[in-house]
Design brief:
The complex is a heterodimer. By secondary structure, chain A is mainly α. Chain A has a domain of 34 residues. Chain B is globular, with a radius of gyration of 21 Å. In chain B, helix 1 packs across helix 8, helix 2 crosses helix 4 and helix 10 crosses helix 11. Chain B has one domain: TIM Barrel (Alpha-Beta Barrel). In chain B, helix 12 links the parallel strand 6 and strand 7. Classes of the chains: A mainly alpha, B alpha/beta. At the A-B interface, helix 2 of A face helix 5, helix 7, helix 8, strand 5 and helix 11 of B.
Amino acid sequence: MAKEKKAKRKPGACIPWEEKLKELPEISGDEELVKRVWEDIDALGYMYIWQCLLSF
Amino acid sequence: MAQDMEQLYGERLKRYVTAMRNEKPDMIPIRPFVAEFTAKYAGYTCQEVTHDFQKAFAAARKCAADFDWDAVVGNMVYVWTGLTQAIGTKYYAVPGIDIPPDTGFQYLEPPEEKAFMKADEYDQLIEDPTGFLFNVWLPRISADVSAMDEPTSMRNNLSFLKGGMAMLNYFTAFGTQNELLRKESGTVSAISGILKAPFDIIADKLRGYLGLITDVMERPEKVLAACEALMPHLTHVALSGADPDKNVPIGLWMHRGCVPFFSQKHFEKFYWPTLKPIVEEIWAHGHQVLFYAEGDWNAHLNAFAELPDGSIVYHVDQADIFEAHKAIGEKFCISGGIPNFLLSYGTEEEVRECCKKVIDGVAGDGGYIMDASAIVQNDGKVENIKAMTDFTREYGVY
């Protein structure tokens, strides 16, 4: 698993939160909530492409 | 009635899990991987069960209700071609469209020069596997998705919209299907989650078998680095679909990484070093992996024996099941070993004799699951599947 560090995108992510955060204005509310929801939905995009490769 | 089914489900789950842990249950569990056979039995064409997954689900449930099986897959005709058509996937021959309606769907491997990944693209895959799949691979395997240098289109946008919603719909429906199997017939859903070896997936979907043969000779370090780059992703996908109760295994579909498709040296250099750590990682999370060893993998039994005791269930297709049992039966549960040609062309008596021979040779101490050698398609005879089932129930009591 040593090669994982070199991956541009971590497993489970298409557009990492750190990248998305740079596009947003300063978050006045609950940043953790925004992060969690972003990552949960982003994971669906990840599932889509990897399931296309593996299952279909 | 519902309570009886729940009791039956509990007994079957215990039987199935006990065998998979390489222990001795009350009787030999039966877990046939029946695909297009279910269509034949339920009165559907291959087109119907491949293109309309609700009919595939109904066919699987009918078989589960009529045969005394402990566990089945909710839909072993797994590739729903309604979904692949929505995505625009090029590499399937669809029953009723590309091939006759009563022929099972086919995977079409492109010629070497039209492989979905080019020989000089390894670095892109290694650098960013997910980005490569979205930006390079998907536009090539889909008739609708635009390449990065092409203008977008309605067909491009619809491919993602329809494909994404259809996939979610399909996966969600499996939850309902598994509940219905439990309530209607007390049948266990046999597997949960998917894994393929990095080396296999490069051959299957990226470089093609012929392309990978060239690559292991001309750019072996790139191949190894690509396998390593895929490892964390394949581990993540496998674990994300695993059974939260840790009862049933993740399915590993083993294709062309073995002798004679590749040499022993290539297996040792590429296939095994990049699969073994994935299986160990999955086992560290408490999940077994079902090695569905399609073809003959007996040349590699010593490698598989390196895995922790009980970490896998080993399914035997065309290999010598007695040799496999001798080599790894102390460590792992074995399944399969009833040849498909016998189930298609043999007599009921021949099927019973074969089952007896396998049970006598492999199942004595537990740790065996009755199944055909390979996935049963619509050439399997109903009376032979019934003979396999009934004989195992009569003879396979401990």
